[in-house]
Amino acid sequence: MRRDDRGSAVVEFALVSVVLLLLLLGVLQVAVYLYVRNIVAACAAEGARFAANADVDVGQGAARAEEVLRRGAGAGVAERVRCVGRDEFGDGGLRLAGVECSGALPVFFAPLGDALPLHVTAHAVEESRAQ
Questions:
Q1: What are 82's strand-pairing partners?
Q2: What is the pLDDT of residues 40-59, one digit of tens each?
Q3: 52 and 98 Cβ atoms separated by less than 8 Å
């Protein structure tokens, strides 16, 4: 007795296409996450360089980083990421202006909420302040 194979290609296509679609969405999510992380890192570095200028407070550097982030990545990302300025001391007693940006990004293709943590820190050597 011979079995009929009609319709099996449709079932195989449905099963394989679901796996391929999930794989594609996962790759897109990683790409978007890395893109936004690079934007946040560049904004934190800009804020740290701004705060390293003479007579500029590190709080102004954090505000600058958030402003650049809002222009570069949009208001949606800027609302989820907060930047904080910190005065630190590096090796050899150098004063460093640091900007730390942290938050969480949503998973775009699943209703999981803010599930992707994001934490970036940037430092710049401070200029000497006028006496």
A1: 102
A2: 999 999 999 999 987 888 89
A3: no
pTM check: above 0.90: no
Q: Does 131 fall in a domain?
A: no
Q: Is residue 2 part of a domain?
A: no
Collect the ranges in the chain with pLDDT lower than 70: 1-2, 110-114, 129-131
Nearest to 101 by CA among 57, 52, 47, 51: 47
Closest CA relative to residue 65, chosen from 98, 39, 81, 43: 43
**Structural domain of residue 73, as residue ranges?**
8-125
Largest Cα span, the chain: 99
Q: Which helix (H) or strand (E) holds 103?
A: strand 95-106
